[in-house]
Q: What sequence folds into this?
C-alpha cells in the first residue's frame, strides 16, 4: 500500500487541513460500508494469514561475472508441488555414433561411449573421465555461483520423461522441484555428434543463473602428454583462442559474445554453441588431480600404471546465459576436420574447424594432413602407407633443389684451392683481429665472381625442416591417426614398441651424410656431425610417435637412393674427383692430372 508521511512533520496549516479532510472521508467510507453490509448480508470465508519473506540475496559471482537481476521485496509464492524420484535409474540414448547413459541423480551423464573409437585397452572409448568426475562433477551437470545450490541441484533425484533405452532422434527431460526450487533440464538428440540442451533453474519463481558444464577432462587422457595438451578453446566474432592449462584460472567467468566455447584434449572436445551468443558467459575450471593409479608411462605395458604421486591439470568449462535460461547445442566428439568444418555457430558461418589447432606450424601442418588424408582416401586405406607415399612425393618435389645444391657444391669445390690460399694468407692473425674481416671479404668476393651461393647447400634443409616440424606438431593432434596401425606398429601416434624405426632413422641419417658431398666443410667437423646429429635425432624419435620416425626414415632412405644415383652422374663424378685430389694434396701425395696416366 502507499506510504504516508506523518503530517506533524510537514509545515504549514494547509497540510493539517488536508489531513483532517482525509480522516473525515475515511470515516464516511467506513460507516457507509457497514450500512451496505447490513442491507446485503453474505458469508465470508476468512483467508489464511499472509506470510512474507525477504527476497533472496543476489548470487555471488566470480570476477568478470554478470549477476542475474533479483527482484526486490518480492513476496514468496506458494511452494511448488514436489516432483522428485525415490530411486536412482538410468536412461540410455543411442545413435550410430554414441551411446550416452544418463542418471536421474542430478540429470547428468554417467557414461558417454563413442562407438567408432577405442581406448588404450581396446574397449569402447568412454569420454567421461570417471576419476575426475567424482570430485569435480559429471558431464552436463549444473554450475551456479552458490556452492550449496550447485550441490543441491546435482545431487537431487530428478524424474525423467523416459527410462531404459531411447533411439535418436529423441528428447529426454529431467524435472525436479521441492520447496521453492524448480529445475527443468531438456536434452534433444539427432543422428550427429550434436545435442541440444535447455536448462532452467527457478527459485521463488525467479530464474537463477545456472550454467551447464563439462567439468572434468576426458576419458582418453591416460598419459602425461594427453594431460599437458588439454586446452580451453573459444571463439569470439570468428577469432579462435586456445589456452594451455597454465593460462586457465579456475573459477573465472568470461563474458560473451561467444560463437562457441569449451575444452578439448588431443583428439576429442566438448564444445558449447549457445543459441544466444551475445548474452552467453563461460565459467572456467582448473583443478589438480593425482592420477598415479590410472596414468600410463611410456615404455611400459598397456596395463602398467605409474608409481608415486602424479599431479595433473584437469580443465573444464560451463556455459550459461546472463538471463538465467541456458539454451545451447553441445558437441562432444572427435576433433576430425571433416566433422568440425560442417558445424556452424548460431547465426553465423563460423565453424568448429579452428578447434583443430596445429600450433605455430599450423598452416603447413594443416595442408600436410589434407594431402595425407587425400592419399588415404584415394590411394591406400592404411595410414602408415599413406605416410610413406606422402614422404616419397615430398622428396621427389625437392629433387630439383638437391640437384641445385650439388651444382653449387661443385662450384664451391672448384674454387676451394683459391679459398684455401686466402685462408693461408690470413692464418697468422687471431680470430679477433680486424684483418680477419678482410679475409671474409675476399672469400665472399671470390664466391660472387664464380657464381657460388654460400647458402646453396642449405636450401633442401631449409625446405625440409618446416615440413618436419609441421609433421611433428600435426601427428599428436590428428584423431584419424590415433590407433592407426602399420606392419608391426600398433599405433602411429605412440612410440614404436620395437624401436625399429628410430634405429633405422639413425642408420639412414648416418648414411645420408656419408653419401652426400660436403664441399668446404672441415673434415673433423663433418665427422662430428655425421655421428652427433643421428644420435640426437634418434634419441628424440625414440619416445615419440612412430609416424614421425616412419616419415623421417623413409625420407632418409629415399634421399640416399637419390644421392647414390646423382653421385654416378658426370656432376657427381667430377665432385668426387675434386674431393679426392684435395684429400691427396692434404696428405702430401702427388696429384694426378685429369685425362692422363
A:
Amino acid at each position: 500500500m502507499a506510504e504516508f508521511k506523518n503530517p506533524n512533520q510537514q509545515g504549514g496549516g494547509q497540510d493539517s487541513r488536508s489531513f483532517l479532510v482525509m480522516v473525515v472521508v475515511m470515516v464516511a467510507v467506513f460507516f457507509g460500508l457497514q450500512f451496505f453490509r447490513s442491507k446485503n448480508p453474505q458469508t465470508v470465508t476468512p483467508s489464511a494469514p499472509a506470510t512474507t519473506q525477504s527476497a533472496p540475496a543476489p548470487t555471488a559471482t566470480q570476477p568478470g561475472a554478470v549477476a542475474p537481476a533479483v527482484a526486490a521485496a518480492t513476496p514468496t509464492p506458494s511452494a511448488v508441488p514436489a516432483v522428485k524420484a525415490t530411486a536412482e535409474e538410468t536412461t540410455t540414448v543411442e545413435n550410430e555414433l554414441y551411446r550416452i547413459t544418463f542418471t536421474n541423480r542430478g540429470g547428468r551423464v554417467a557414461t558417454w561411449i563413442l562407438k567408432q573409437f577405442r581406448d588404450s585397452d581396446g574397449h569402447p572409448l568412454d569420454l567421461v573421465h570417471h576419476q575426475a568426475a567424482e570430485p569435480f562433477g559429471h558431464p552436463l551437470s549444473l554450475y551456479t555461483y552458490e556452492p550449496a545450490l550447485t550441490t543441491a541441484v546435482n545431487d537431487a533425484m530428478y524424474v525423467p520423461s523416459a527410462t531404459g533405452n531411447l533411439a535418436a532422434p529423441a528428447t529426454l527431460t529431467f524435472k525436479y522441484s521441492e520447496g521453492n526450487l524448480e529445475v527443468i533440464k531438456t536434452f534433444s538428440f539427432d543422428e550427429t555428434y550434436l545435442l541440444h540442451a535447455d536448462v532452467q533453474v527457478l527459485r521463488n519463481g525467479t530464474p537463477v543463473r545456472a550454467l551447464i558444464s563439462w567439468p572434468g577432462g576426458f576419458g582418453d587422457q591416460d598419459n602425461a602428454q594427453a594431460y599437458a595438451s588439454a586446452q580451453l578453446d573459444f571463439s569470439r566474432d570468428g577469432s579462435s583462442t586456445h589456452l594451455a592449462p597454465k593460462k586457465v584460472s579456475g573459477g573465472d567467468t568470461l563474458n560473451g559474445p561467444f560463437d562457441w566455447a569449451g575444452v578439448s584434449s588431443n583428439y576429442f572436445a566438448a564444445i558449447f554453441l549457445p543459441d544466444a551468443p551475445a548474452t552467453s558467459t563461460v565459467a572456467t575450471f582448473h583443478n589438480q588431480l593425482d592420477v598415479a593409479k590410472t596414468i600410463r608411462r611410456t615404455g611400459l605395458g598397456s596395463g602398467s600404471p605409474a608409481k608415486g604421486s602424479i599431479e595433473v591439470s584437469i580443465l573444464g568449462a560451463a556455459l550459461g546465459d546472463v538471463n538465467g535460461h541456458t539454451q545451447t547445442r553441445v558437441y562432444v566428439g572427435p576433433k576430425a576436420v571433416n566433422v568440425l568444418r560442417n558445424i556452424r555457430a548460431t547465426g553465423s558461418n563460423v565453424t568448429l574447424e579452428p578447434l583443430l589447432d596445429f600450433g605455430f606450424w599450423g598452416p603447413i601442418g594443416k595442408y600436410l594432413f589434407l594431402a595425407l588424408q587425400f592419399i588415404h582416401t584415394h590411394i591406400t586405406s592404411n595410414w602408415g602407407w599413406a605416410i610413406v607415399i606422402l614422404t616419397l612425393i615430398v622428396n621427389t618435389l625437392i629433387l630439383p633443389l638437391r640437384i641445385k645444391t650439388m651444382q653449387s657444391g661443385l662450384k664451391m669445390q672448384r674454387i676451394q684451392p683459391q679459398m684455401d690460399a686466402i685462408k693461408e694468407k690470413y692464418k697468422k692473425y687471431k680470430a679477433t683481429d680486424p684483418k680477419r674481416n678482410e679475409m671474409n671479404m675476399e672469400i665472399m668476393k671470390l664466391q660472387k665472381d664464380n657464381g657460388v651461393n654460400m647458402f646453396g647447400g642449405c636450401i633442401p634443409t631449409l625446405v625440409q625442416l618446416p615440413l618436419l616440424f609441421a609433421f611433428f606438431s600435426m601427428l599428436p593432434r590428428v584423431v584419424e591417426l590415433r590407433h592407426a596401425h602399420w606392419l608391426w606398429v600398433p599405433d602411429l601416434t605412440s612410440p614404436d614398441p620395437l624401436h625399429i624405426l628410430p634405429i633405422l632413422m639413425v642408420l639412414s641419417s648416418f648414411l645420408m651424410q656419408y653419401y652426400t658431398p660436403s664441399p668446404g666443410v672441415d673434415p673433423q667437423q663433418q665427422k662430428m656431425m655425421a655421428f652427433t646429429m643421428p644420435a640426437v635425432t634418434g634419441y628424440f624419435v625414440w619416445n615419440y610417435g612412430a609416424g614421425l620416425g616412419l616419415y623421417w626414415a623413409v625420407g632418409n632412405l629415399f634421399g640416399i637412393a637419390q644421392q647414390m644415383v646423382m653421385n654416378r652422374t658426370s656432376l657427381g663424378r667430377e665432385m668426387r674427383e675434386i674431393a679426392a685430389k684435395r684429400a691427396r694434396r692434404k696428405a702430401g701425395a702427388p696429384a694426378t692430372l685429369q685425362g692422363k696416366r
About this structure: The longest helix spans residues 13-39. DSSP finds 15 helices and 20 strands in the chain. The longest strand covers residues 108-118.
